[in-house]
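Saturday, quiet lab. Running sequence design on the structure tokens for the scaffold JK sent over.
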């Protein structure tokens, strides 16, 4: 330490302590990068996990496939998640793996032709303005229900049916007038039992009747009777006759709230195409999109006029956006704001509140909290500022630069959400007295009314369809108070498209709503033991019960025909479902005492009848003053819950495996392929995400199950360009899983001739790739299912176990380290898709395909370790290539420790002092037979020193593995001597 570091003022002894014992940071383990589908987790980002338990926590368990239970509502788990099995195979015997989860993303310059596949997502219909041609072109159809009667009724969308071309829906039964009817869309038909109707599905095979209702315990429950598996409409992967429709959303909770009569013939239903001009509700051609809450708003200030109060005009404070794209967060999580408190300090005028992330299906009486952020505030200069505590960082992918660009001020703390703040609030321009007090509801299609133009009651006429005037400050139970906008023309901005036959008096209005997550109506719902268990805002429980309402899942989905946007409303015919605010919590009903129960009454703040708007009324403490925020919060009205909504996976739900090779091949011959095939673009983007060595460290790369030549070649090229990884690829011509076609097991089986021919035609010559044949069958250790997995999965697992048993430069093959039956793969291997003969093995090995062979005594064994290098050299073997990757990586790390140091002999010696012991250790452990390191004036010449370059030469002799054993057995005469 220099004496200049001391401060000399007066005589004395000066002492300082210098710690030179600090150890350099130990580099983390380097493992493979695995690209593919997982059950959940961060998408299209390189995420490192250090154990299988951590993998499960982040990405979920491996999915064996074959689960066809209500695919629409419960998720597509029909295809195995090969990437998850690969991670399990590796992490069984090693400590680190980097995962890139696939989702659907279209290219910026995508093709939009309906005959190509450049757009992500799906669409069952062809947009058309002619109502008469809707049925012929497929699309989305709404089943609407309401109470019957000649007076005005408020009904609801009850379900959405998605049809392929040539499919039509109708209801059979008695017309609203009492006469029988020929099944037709747009006809009001009476129920045959409580909320029960006869649905007729017509296609080229004829018409089929289905008795359906909305009681989940009934054998006629709509989700039990109708097809809920979209993949059954895909004839490419369906054995036998494919379905021509599926049931999508069903809104059991809304039906129970709006359709209250129970007797036969006391209800009616009708069907309409959900389409407006070129906007089709079945059009979900979007890339993956994150779910989000609506904007959170502040309270109405007591200094403002209550009569003009409109919560929609309140300043937007912030909203929560899921960190990851997709639907998992909205189906599994919701967000509550609780413990709202005003400031009690003159020095700090900002109030506080707590944010909790909860499981969507929990109960308010027993919240299942995933994350909690206590006592956050809206002061941007505070360490407890909500954006600082939770984080606001996010990334945007650039198709031009082929990389992510990162934005935001504060790093992510939450595992699930990030903050999106009002810019003014973020810059300190907000009001310090604001606290979060409400939110904008999920977007939905605009409400509409059917107005009879018949001349008298009991007659039939054509219906005029109009939208409601825009009034968002309502709860769902208040929709009946709405009036038609005088300026609204028929069909104006409504997703509805058709003329409808009605039976009512002239001018009678029937009003219909599109469901959204319901709001809590009063503090007694769900039987909370106290107000502290009463979360206002959305209620995920069933009406009249504390049990979870599964139709909540369908209310949070992205709307078809409404492109994702950063705003709350987007697309034609979309509105906010409501604007909720605690300002509208009321202590009594308008017409009768509330019996000590608080109620949510839309508009009560403006009318002066809300809790904050009156000093009298049941439930308000004695002595409370008008518009007292303190009283409301202290009483326990200090919390509300919001939904996450609008997330989308960007995948075609009609595919069992959204990234199937059959789907990837649909755009073969079109260039560039990524513009014409969103699945190809998504995988290529995932590979490019980890192409930069400074973004992700790994030594192996694989995308299990992907055999498309363009993508597997791209993987090899990326590894070769980096120089520090090897790609394990799967080959075309091998086994085809059931997700690829509808063939029998015999026809799906691959052949040696096919894989050899396909590989030879590619003319690959690189040591940065390897491949195996054939597929194998494993037993899922968790689920117990038997699953066919691509050979790259077990090859990766074998490399992990070989490294654990010996060293990474030992050949991951043979009976000692390649015995799959003996557990070398990290997964229990029970079968192979093709039993190889000795000739088969020779044929495969001759073209650098490593055979997975079966032997009577030893079982299933990886019986080769060649790279894809055709040119004979030491690098045509996997163990040598992995040795070189390891050596280059470690010596590169050592070199960084002398970077920017003086280019002198002492620095050279320090570098040699690190490299030589490292190589000597590898030699002792049988990785090298000899080595030499030269770093002196002959390598780093004065000219190089002047150019700031250190140049060393490292000579290596890799130890070769024994792959062929030749033995001579000589038979001699009895008198021969062995000493001769």
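Result came back. Writing it out in full:
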């Amino acid at each position: 330490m220099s004496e200049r570091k001391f401060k000399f003022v007066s005589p004395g002894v000066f002492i300082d302590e210098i710690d030179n014992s600090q150890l350099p940071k130990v580099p983390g383990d380097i493992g493979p990068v695995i690209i593919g589908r997982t059950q959940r987790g961060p998408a299209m980002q390189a995420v490192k996990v250090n154990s299988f338990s951590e993998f499960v926590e982040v990405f979920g368990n491996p999915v064996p496939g074959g689960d066809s239970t209500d695919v629409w509502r419960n998720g597509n788990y029909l295809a195995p998640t090969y990437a998850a099995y690969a991670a399990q195979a590796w992490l069984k015997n090693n400590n680190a793996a980097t995962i890139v989860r696939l989702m659907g993303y279209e290219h910026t310059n995508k093709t939009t032709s309906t005959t190509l596949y450049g757009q992500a997502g799906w669409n069952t219909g062809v947009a058309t303005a002619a109502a008469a041609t809707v049925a012929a072109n497929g699309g989305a159809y709404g089943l609407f229900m309401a109470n019957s009667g000649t007076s005005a009724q408020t009904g609801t969308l009850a379900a959405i049916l998605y049809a392929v071309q040539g499919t039509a829906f109708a209801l059979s039964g008695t017309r609203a007038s009492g006469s029988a009817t020929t099944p037709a869309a747009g006809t009001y038909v009476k129920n045959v039992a409580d909320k029960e109707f006869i649905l007729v599905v017509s296609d080229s095979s004829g018409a089929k009747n289905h008795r359906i209702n909305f009681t989940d315990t009934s054998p006629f429950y709509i989700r039990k009777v109708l097809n809920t598996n979209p993949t059954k409409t895909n004839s490419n992967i369906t054995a036998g006759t494919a379905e021509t429709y599926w049931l999508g959303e069903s809104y059991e909770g809304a039906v129970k709230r709006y359709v209250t009569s129970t007797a036969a013939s006391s209800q009616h239903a009708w069907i309409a195409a959900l389409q407006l001009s070129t906007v089709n509700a079945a059009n979900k051609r979007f890339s993956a999109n994150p779910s989000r809450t609506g904007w959170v708003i502040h309270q109405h200030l007591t200094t403002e006029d209550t009569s003009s109060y409109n919560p929609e005009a309140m300043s937007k404070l912030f909203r929560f956006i899921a960190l990851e794209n997709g639907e998992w967060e909205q189906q599994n999580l919701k967000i509550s704001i609780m413990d709202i408190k005003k400031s009690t300090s003159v020095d700090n005028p900002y109030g506080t509140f707590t944010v909790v992330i909860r499981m969507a299906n929990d109960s308010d009486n027993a919240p299942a909290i995933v994350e909690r952020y206590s006592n956050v505030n809206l002061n941007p200069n505070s360490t407890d500022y909500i954006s600082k505590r939770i984080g606001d960082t996010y990334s945007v992918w650039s198709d031009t630069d082929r990389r992510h660009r990162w934005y935001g001020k504060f790093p992510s703390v939450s595992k699930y959400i990030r903050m999106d703040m009002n810019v003014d609030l973020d810059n300190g321009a907000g009001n310090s007295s604001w606290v979060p007090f409400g939110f904008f509801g999920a977007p939905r299609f605009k409400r509409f009314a059917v107005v009879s133009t018949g001349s008298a009651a009991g007659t039939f006429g054509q219906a005029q369809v109009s939208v409601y005037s825009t009034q968002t400050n309502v709860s769902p139970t208040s929709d009946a108070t709405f009036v038609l906008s005088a300026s609204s023309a028929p069909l104006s901005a409504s997703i509805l498209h058709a003329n409808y036959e009605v039976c009512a008096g002239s001018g009678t209005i029937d009003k219909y709503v599109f469901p959204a997550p319901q709001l809590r109506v009063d503090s007694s719902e769900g039987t909370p033991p106290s107000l502290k268990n009463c979360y206002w805002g959305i209620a995920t429980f069933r009406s009249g019960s504390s049990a979870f309402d599964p139709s909540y899942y369908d209310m949070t989905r992205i709307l078809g025909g409404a492109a994702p946007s950063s705003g709350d409303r987007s697309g034609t015919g979309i509105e906010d479902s409501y604007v909720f605010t605690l300002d509208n919590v009321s202590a009594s009903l308008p017409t009768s005492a509330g019996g000590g129960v608080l109620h949510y009454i839309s508009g009560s703040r403006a009318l002066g009848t809300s809790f904050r708007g009156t000093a009298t009324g049941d439930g308000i403490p004695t002595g409370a003053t008008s518009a007292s925020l303190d009283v409301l919060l202290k009483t326990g009205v200090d919390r509300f819950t919001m939904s996450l909504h609008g997330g989308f996976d960007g995948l075609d739900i009609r595919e069992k495996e959204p990234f199937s090779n059959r789907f990837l091949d649909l755009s073969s011959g079109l260039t560039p392929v990524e513009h014409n095939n969103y699945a190809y673009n998504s995988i290529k983007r995932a590979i490019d995400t980890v192409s930069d060595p400074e973004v992700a460290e790994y030594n192996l790369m694989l995308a299990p199950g992907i055999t498309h030549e363009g993508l597997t070649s791209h993987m090899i090229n990326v590894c070769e360009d980096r120089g520090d990884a090897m790609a394990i690829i799967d080959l075309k011509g091998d086994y085809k899983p059931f997700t690829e076609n509808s063939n029998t097991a015999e026809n799906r089986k691959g052949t040696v001739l096919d894989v050899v021919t396909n590989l030879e035609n590619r003319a690959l010559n690189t040591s940065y790739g390897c491949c195996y044949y054939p597929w194998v069958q494993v037993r899922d250790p968790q689920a117990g299912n038997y699953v066919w997995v691509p050979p790259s999965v077990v090859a990766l697992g074998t490399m992990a176990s070989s490294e654990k048993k010996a060293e990474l430069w030992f050949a991951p093959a043979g009976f000692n380290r390649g015995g799959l039956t003996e557990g070398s793969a990290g997964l229990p291997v029970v079968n192979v898709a093709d039993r190889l003969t000795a000739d088969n093995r020779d044929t495969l090995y001759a073209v650098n395909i490593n055979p997975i062979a079966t032997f009577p005594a030893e079982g299933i064994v990886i019986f080769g370790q060649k790279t894809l290098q055709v040119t004979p050299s030491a690098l045509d073997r996997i163990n040598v290539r992995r040795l070189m990757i390891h050596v280059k990586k470690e010596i590169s790390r050592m070199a960084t420790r002398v970077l920017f140091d003086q280019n002198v002999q002492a620095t050279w010696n320090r570098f040699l002092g690190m490299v030589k012991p490292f190589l000597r250790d590898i030699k002792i452990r049988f990785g090298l037979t000899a080595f030499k390191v030269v770093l002196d004036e002959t390598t780093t010449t004065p000219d190089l020193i002047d150019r700031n370059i250190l140049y060393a030469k490292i000579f290596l002799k890799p130890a070769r593995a024994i792959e062929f054993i030749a033995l001579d057995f000589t038979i001699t005469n009895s008198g021969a001597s062995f000493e001769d």
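Notes for JK: Confidence is low (pLDDT under 50) at residues 127-135, 453-507, 589-595, 615-627. Residues 905-924 form the longest helix (20 residues). Ask whether to fix the surface positions before the next round.
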